[in-house]
Amino acid sequence: MQKAISIEGIAHDHAGENALRGVSFSVPSGSLFGIIGADGAGKSTLFRILATLLKPQKGRAQVLQWNVENEYHPIRATIGYMPQRFSLYQDLTVWENLNFAADIMDIHKREKFQILNELLAFSRLSPAKDRRTGRLSGGMKQKLALCCAMVRKPKILLLDEPTVGVDPVTRKDFWDMLAQLRGQGTTTLVSTPYMDEAELCDEVLLLHQGRVVGQGTPQTLCQTLPGSLWNIHGSESLHVFAHTEPPFPLISLYTMGGDLHALAPKGMEGPQILAEVQRVCPRAQHILEATARVEDVLLFALRNGGGKHEPHL
Amino acid sequence: MSLTFSIQTKGLTKSFGPFTAVDAIDVEVGKGEIYGFLGANGAGKTTAMRMLCGLLQPSSGTGTVAGFDILRETSKIRTRIGYMSQKFALYPDLTVKENLSLVADLYAIPRALVKERIAEAAERSGIQDLLPRRTGELPWGWQQRLSMACATAHHPEILFLDEPTGSVDPLSRRVFWDLIRAEAERGTTIFVTTHYMDEAEYCHRACFLVDGKIADIGTPHELKTRHQVSTLQEVFLTVAQLARRS
After folding, report:
1. ipTM of the complex model
2. Which residues of B touch A257 (CB under 8 A)?
């Protein structure tokens, strides 16, 4: 399959924070590709390298046929980049922000009007067209920022945590927009701290301390968990401390909403697992086998993926 | 009743011209309670929180926060609350200890107590070994702990947390909620907003705000039973459908 992005052995270290330590992967053309990982895993550094804002210290990164180090002109003309920080002018209206983005990207006057109206319809922001951007809700701002990244109809979208601070309903709208773009052949690279969003991607890359510790479709990633996963429920919300050592022989035990999840060696029976869990959480009452989700996989990787999770240093 | 409630409002309202951002809400938060304040972007959460913190004058309604009147005693309220959001920045050029000292001065902690309070706040957040380190060079998770120590060094009665875990990985979010839980167990009232519905499950009670009004409130268990669903995410999606304004 044709690759939209390919990266080989990229390393970049600036004072140890958000460093990349030899990352290789490729993104198939037309796919919705997610990046997840711990805070400071290097996600934003990766986006900045691909957006040609930062030169990698080692390795090679290519966007379509172009190299990020010396062919940044055609790359910049091809991509739409939405940085993590809010990138709009607060005292311009929605329309003015779009218009400004179109002007600095040299969109021809004849096309501009049509493109901007299409984007407003696509994002359902038309009714808010004349509202001052600073007065929009957080979710609407993020939709507008996506539209601004799209005025040049980019083949490749780079979205760095676009839905942080956005409520569940608006997040769904936002991801419907991404799914629609995917249908039109756009390649999207997107990072997110929401694991339910990662599950909407064709493929997910798991970054930990600057290294790739997992890659695959959400389904194949979920099959990588060693052992079997169980959900434990009580009549009240259950809790174990994040740093609690799981009672032997459980592999891990953690809260999942009001329930607990236990990762246990294959072959261990439910009642036996429940008895172990009750030693650290006496209010645990019911146990059922659970389907692993991306959040379980990432939690496992953060605890066991080599090196320590940052906050424990 | 102000002895048992840390926060109590009656008909709290804020209008901006013709737009009613917060529409006559009655909020009662018990001492030591973890109270989740949930809602869509633009539902009025931030406006309500700013009124409770004494940063914004209500258009109408009454209320007390930490026993003080939200209309007339806002400066007293501010000495009795702590506030933290992901956006609030620590000073990256100062050391951990200097950030804590600054906060101690801002809250006018008596000079004789400052040393002890800083040590205690650092210990509770597990950052006692980092006091001489420059804040900006610490990993994000440690900065978050320092923010928590800064917000609680003056022993506030109520801690307001405005989306404290915006862009945080699943493990750090669990670690951070352990800190919140410990703070509540010490008797601090927690008033928290979040867009992560699994975190809402950790609250004693969750309140859903829709178009500036309280659409539903209860323990996670009550809410899920009432709406006949298995997660608070589903409760959110159901309740948010009631919204008329965008």
Report:
1. 0.87
2. 197-198, 201, 231-232
